[in-house]
Structures are given as C-alpha cells and as structure tokens.
Amino acid sequence: MDEEIKMLEDKLTELVDAVTSLRQENSEIKPSVEMLQEENRALKAKISEATMKIENLLGQLPN
Predict the structure, then answer these.
(1) Which pTM was predicted?
(2) CA pair distance 22, 31, nearest whole angstrom
(3) Fewer CB in 10 Å around end: N or C, the chain?
(4) Chain-centre distance for alpha carbon 44
C-alpha cells in the first residue's frame, strides 16, 4: 500500500513539474505569438494592397 502511495505521489510530482514547465514555456512564447500575429496582419494588408494595385494595372492594359 505504501509503495502504491509513493508511486502515485511520484507521478503527481512529475505531473505538477510538467504543468509548471509548460506554464513557464507558455508565458515565454505568448509575446512572440502576439508579435507574429500582428506581423501576419500587416503582411496580409500589404498583400491586399499589392493585389489591388496589380488589378488596377491589369485593368489599364489594352485588350
């Protein structure tokens, strides 16, 4: 019985350590993710603007 309790205690400690580690990793990664999302939005806007410019130029070409 004591051995089973010790095994469960060890597994629980391992789980708590893993959760703590993942929380730390998450807090370190979160700012990077937010920055990349903002960069992605800016790039999408540039692509949209470039697409409109190309469409305008194509519309000015003679048939």
Answers:
(1) 0.64
(2) 15
(3) C
(4) 17
Distances (CA, A) of 57 to 46, 47, 48: 16, 15, 14
CA angle 15, 21, 25 (to 5 degrees): 145
Tell me the residue length of the chain: 63
Q: What distances in angstroms separate CA 41 from CA 6, 22, 34, one per listed residue?
A: 51, 27, 11
Distance, in Å, from the CA atom of 54 to the CA atom of 46, rounded to the nearest integer, reads 12
Q: Looking up tokens 């990664």, which residue turns up?
A: 29
63 pLDDT higher than 80? no
